[in-house]
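Customer escalation, tier 2.

The customer says the design service returned an amino acid string that "doesn't look like it belongs to this structure." They asked us to rerun it and document both sides in this ticket. The original structure tokens are below, unchanged.
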């Protein structure tokens, strides 16, 4: 599969008011209270804040400035597929090159955020529980002091596509000292060839997942993420920091499916996407109306290399200026579903030129 190597263009600095950075020596999950029939009204203060804001008509908490998607650094499995025959997929580590890629990615993220000119900027991380993504997180995180890290959440729904259980034997018997969950290298090669013939989105590996299955669990994660954004879960109650940046550390296919789900891309459009390289990132930046657009940070050439079509690029331009909740009634992707518009246009044009 072609690999997208992305370079990043600086974004213009936006002046914001100065915010105090709170002390971060301790993390307080919740506090106790005997109010409300024994239920702690302060256990989830962000929910209380959201409810009071809705009632009072107050402005909701500021949306994070960016959602940054990071693919893990080069792993042992990326350079030697035989690793999967002796190491379970969730336990595969980064190579030394992968660790260096993650460190450079962290530095690039920091430099990108600093150019915003927001004094109190912070980052909040979501990470797949696989070893290679957790290691990537650690090396990315070295670019940030503790006061800049608002929090981190391990999210199993961000895990790699499950390629199935290939047994070395029958009835879960031991074979060569191994038991289940390890891949048969030759059989996996055959399955991947079948996937290319069948279609990457719908092909399901035996006892594993299809990209469509990943889409279903990513839909659940997306709803959690949207809820977190709406209630301002990333910052302490009362804070209105406009410089929050979310970083999602995951896997190539999972991140492409995430983008597909977020922007409602079709299966055909998904099939046209290219993987972005190990330790690389795609940036969804908040546009002028409050929605997130890839076109706010990336150039047209970068997005075309990723696989975006003319229609997808046009939609990203619309996303730059649209407000949350708005619909694109002139969505150019309509033409991918309906074929009679050209006939209507031709009929209309012919009427205009009739004597």
């Amino acid at each position: 599969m072609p690999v997208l190597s992305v370079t990043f263009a600086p974004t213009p600095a936006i002046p914001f008011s100065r915010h105090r950075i709170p002390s971060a020596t301790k993390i307080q999950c919740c506090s106790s209270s005997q109010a409300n029939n024994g239920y702690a009204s302060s256990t989830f203060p962000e929910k209380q804040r959201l409810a009071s804001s809705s009632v009072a008509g107050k402005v909701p908490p500021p949306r994070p400035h960016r959602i940054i998607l990071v693919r893990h650094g080069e792993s042992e499995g990326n350079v030697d597929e035989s690793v999967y025959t002796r190491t379970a997929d969730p336990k595969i580590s980064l190579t030394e090159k992968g660790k260096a890629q993650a460190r450079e990615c962290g530095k690039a993220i920091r430099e990108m955020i600093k150019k915003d000119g927001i004094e109190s900027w912070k980052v909040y991380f979501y990470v797949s529980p696989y070893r290679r993504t957790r290691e990537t997180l650690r090396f990315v995180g070295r670019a940030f002091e503790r006061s800049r890290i608002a929090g981190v959440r391990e999210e199993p729904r961000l895990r790699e596509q499950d390629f199935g259980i290939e047994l070395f034997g029958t009835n879960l018997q031991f074979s060569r000292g191994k038991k289940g969950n390890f891949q048969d290298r030759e059989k996996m090669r055959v399955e991947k060839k079948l996937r290319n013939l069948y279609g990457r989105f719908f092909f399901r590996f035996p006892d594993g997942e299809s990209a469509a299955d990943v889409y279903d669990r990513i839909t659940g994660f997306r709803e959690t993420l949207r809820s977190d954004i709406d209630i301002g879960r990333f910052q302490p109650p009362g804070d209105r920091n406009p410089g929050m940046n979310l970083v999602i550390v995951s896997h190539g296919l999972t991140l492409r499916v995430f983008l597909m789900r977020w922007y409602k891309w079709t299966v055909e459009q998904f099939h046209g996407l290219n993987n972005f390289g190990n330790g690389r990132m795609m940036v969804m930046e908040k546009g002028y109306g409050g929605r997130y657009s890839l076109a706010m940070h990336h150039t047209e050439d970068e997005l075309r290399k990723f696989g975006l079509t003319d229609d997808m690029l046009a939609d990203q331009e619309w996303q730059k200026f649209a407000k949350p909740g708005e619909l694109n009634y002139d969505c150019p992707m309509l033409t991918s579903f309906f074929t009679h518009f050209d006939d209507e246009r031709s009929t209309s044009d012919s009427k205009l030129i009739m004597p």
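Tier 2 assessment: The sequence is consistent with the input. The two ends are 56 Å apart (CA to CA). The longest helix spans residues 211-231. Sent an explanation to the customer and offered a walkthrough call.
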